[in-house]
Design goal:
This protein is 0% helix and 43% strand. It has strands spanning 7-10, 25-29, 35-36, 54-58, 62-71, 88-95, 100-106, 120-130, 134-143. Bound molecules: zinc ion (ZN).
């Protein structure tokens, strides 16, 4: 089967859109306005808030590097890593309008030495693994060039 006929599916369901310009799916507390990713469904985690209603929202596609590291060992579940494991960079990216930090792998081929605090990053999707019919994709951060 040729690569072109494979269906792209999310490696984790409901965490991001599969659009050409993908977005992470989070939630926002209708009481205090705090954003969450991964989504909080039943109650607000803001200790100063007793909100129980959260709207699903698409998060900003761009942010700035807050911290980063090289991940040289496979992460524990529920994180998903390639088999066989290849080291990759991980970035915590601050989304300005949501005032939150979102962790993510950095795209293949960009290691931690290429990153710096404050660097602008955007969300993209990369294939994590595939079978005969599907490509399983996950969100990653890519430096904005
Ligand atoms: Zn709240």
């Amino acid at each position: 089967m040729s690569r072109a006929t494979k269906t792209r599916v999310p490696a984790v369901e409901g965490w991001f859109t599969l659009d050409h310009e993908p977005r992470l799916l989070g939630t926002r507390c209708t009481t205090c306005g705090t954003f969450f990713f991964p989504r909080q469904a039943f109650f607000c985690r803001n200790p100063a808030c007793s909100g129980t209603e959260l709207d699903e929202v698409e998060l900003s596609r761009r942010g700035r590097v807050w911290s980063f590291t090289d991940n040289r060992y496979p992460p524990p579940p529920p994180a998903i890593a390639s088999e066989p494991f290849e080291p990759y960079a991980v970035a915590a990216v601050e989304l300005a309008s949501e005032q939150m930090v979102v962790m993510g792998q950095v795209v293949h081929g960009v290691d931690a030495t290429a990153l710096s605090a404050g660097m602008e990053m955007e969300l993209t999707l990369e294939t994590l693994y595939e079978d005969d019919e599907h490509e399983y994709v996950v969100w990653k951060w890519r430096p904005v060039t």
